[in-house]
Amino acid sequence: MDGYSTTVDPVPTRALGSGYLLEQEIGGGATGRVWRGVRRRDGAQVAIKLLRSEFARDTENVVRFLRQRTVLPNVEHPNLVRVHDLVAEGDMLAVVMDLVQGRDLRQIIRESPLTREQSIIVLAQVASALDAVHAAGVVHRDVKPENVLVVWRGEAHPHAMLTDFGLAKVLDSPAFTSASVLHGTPAYIAPEVVTGRGAGPEADVYGLSVMAYELLVGVRPVQADNPAALLLAHLEAEIVRPQGMPDELWKLIRSGLAKDPAMRPTAARFAARIMGAPSSPAEHEMSNVVSMPTRTPTRSPDRTPDRTPVRTPVRTQTPDSSTMDAIRPAPFAPEPVAKRRKRWPLWVAGSLCLVLGVGGGLWLGNPDKSPGDTQPSSSAGPPLHTYYLAITRATSPKAGQIVLVFQDAKDLPGFDNYLVFRDGVPIQQLNAVDNTTFTYETGDTKTEHCFAVAALLETDNPPLGPKTEPTCLSANGKPASSRE
Q: Which residue in 129, 451, 447, 435 sits closest to 294, CA to CA?
């Protein structure tokens, strides 16, 4: 389960850095555990997702994670679970979010299936939230019912909130890709990701379209008996048009499930079109409960494939977990017709065999079988270098507080920001501010910790860094030590 609305027995409160207290574990999923917590500065209740410890073992991964601090807290939308902070503390990475009192969509559709009109509302809301995420330059990478929380406003209309979009960079990290090769859940993963191409906004729309078919039909559009066969099916299976599904709704979902990402609609277009697609006389009543995008999309319009797909029968049940099986009786019935298998070029088949052979370990319950030195996808641009700086002064003005003064690096080539390390682990990213002082609040007043500060440089020709040693001290409030 990836939602975080369930409750469990309380455990003793413990600190997360200097800003948060962990109170009670309330859920979790493949990437980590979720806690109910408290923000110390104002006592606000928050949800805190502690990621799996292997994510924090690689410095580059932690850097990429912390760099989202300047982006994610500014992404606001009524249908997003807002991210407030990203924290690195020791061997932990954490995402601090709104605490939502709701249930995830997987729970809801199992226990009390949504009506067709309610399903369309939820899908439009999630699409609108994805548009806000994409506008900020972020790709979710794991759109599925477990990552949609639903609360009810009134008795009839659901209010959906997309969560876990703060993990986008983590899912693209060496720690994750070395364990599973592909990021995402097999039932919702886009064909281009299966073949090793990067995940763009179009991959999120594909996952959304799988979820749309699942909600409206009762089964997923692509199914198989095991994860390896499921990945192959995303590449070659044609999608069945359910009997009774209106033309406009079918065209939208079919285009969202196109094998070619360029043929899929944008998230904004999906939201607008699904609300306009006829499904029943009640659809005109739903427009006031969906938070539609307020900006004009700048991306190219979607193109619907002009070929009619060959329809194949869809299995009504699969033998595995919640990410593999059907969810409820279908309001639309798939049309059973003959199956056609597509012959893929040898290079695609070969690469897919490698992906399936290596990636199946995690999805079959064995994350320890890693492929070794699998390289994650990376964006174009100069590489990121860590340039360690001299700490000129380290003090503990009072118990529980440490102040570091360090060398100015803003004139170095490709300077991006500063990164503070404690005992060799990155704990804080500092934007390019006017001063070069870092204040660290901690509840540990006895243990000596060693601090270092580095400048992150995006350049092909990094300068040779000075020989620096970490500065070690405890936050005991005793007189300052100086390295001047």
A: 129
